[in-house]
Amino acid sequence: MDTVNVIAVVGACARERARYAKQLAETSGHVPIASFLRPDATEVAQEVAARARWPCAGRGAVVDVPEQVSVTELIGALAGDPALPTVRLDAVICVVDATHLLTDLGSDDYVSQPNESGQTLMARALLTAAHLEFASHLVIVNWEPIATAELATLLALASHLSPRAVLRLHHGAPQAPAPTAAYTADQDRPGWVCLLNGEFEPHMTDLRVSAFRYENFRPFHPERLQLLLDERVELGDFGTLVRSAGFCRLATRPDIVAQWEQAGHMLSFTPLRRDDDNSEDAELLALGQDIAFIGLDLDHDGLTAALDDATLTDEELAAGPSAWARFPDPFPAWHLAQNPTDQ
């Protein structure tokens, strides 16, 4: 059976995404796939595989991926599922509308996202960030009315969020990307991952756009961290924080490493593992804080000092975990997947 070479088109703007996907299918000779009854990653992947028999075989497919579909789950379903041997994911193209990129990344609303238990709400800003970060190609549309200086800043920001993506301004008929190595389910494309891995090399730079890595072996005092986030970071005291992600620890939960994930006004902490997980596959994610920050006009030194102040002092550190457990903790309880009673 012939393999279907798939190009997935993602993006926050449904109209621009659909238009680009349609044009790309027409110019490349690929079959367009754009209608899904239940738009989740598994359903999209299964439908693409089903169409491998007809009419996509030997031609390829351009898939207009609905906004609510998790791009990471889609990549996993298309590139990492051995049950889909007839599908090869060649590219993930993110269509970026320059006129409202910053608005999308700063959005404070939610998108309903299907999952095994029904529906869940996902922050639109985090979905938008993921579209950019996991894309192989960023296509900027509606860039013509943007002033040159502003456009340069937007392009540099996109490049910082997704430093391994091919970045180009859209004009004329879209062309299918040149064949490269097929996507794999294990992705290290996001800028924050590159930054933590010491492999951060964005193609475009701008004086207003910057990124830095914050490390500190001491756990955060949860109350001081919340005050810092709500009363200073949120208000822009250190510039515009567009994206931050990495690993962190709270003193009140010292044996758990959590993922720190922020886009715009949305910040979440997801517990990943306890320190006593001694499985062979377990790896030490972080002893304390290891977080990447990307933004506009960032005050690196000021934010670093403020984050340091939100970690434990010498006296608090010496007091030990029994004292830490009595600290005020305003953050929601954590429940590890392997044990629902973990907090």
TrEMBL record:
Tell me the leader sequence span: none
Q: Which SUPFAM superfamilies match?
A: Hypothetical protein YjiA, C-terminal domain
What InterPro entries does the database record attribute to this sequence? CobW-like_C, Zn_Chap_cDPG_Synth
User: What positions does the domain CobW C-terminal occupy?
Assistant: 209-311
Q: Which PANTHER family match?
A: COBW DOMAIN-CONTAINING PROTEIN DDB_G0274527, ZINC-REGULATED GTPASE METALLOPROTEIN ACTIVATOR 1
What protein am I looking at? Answer: GTP-binding protein
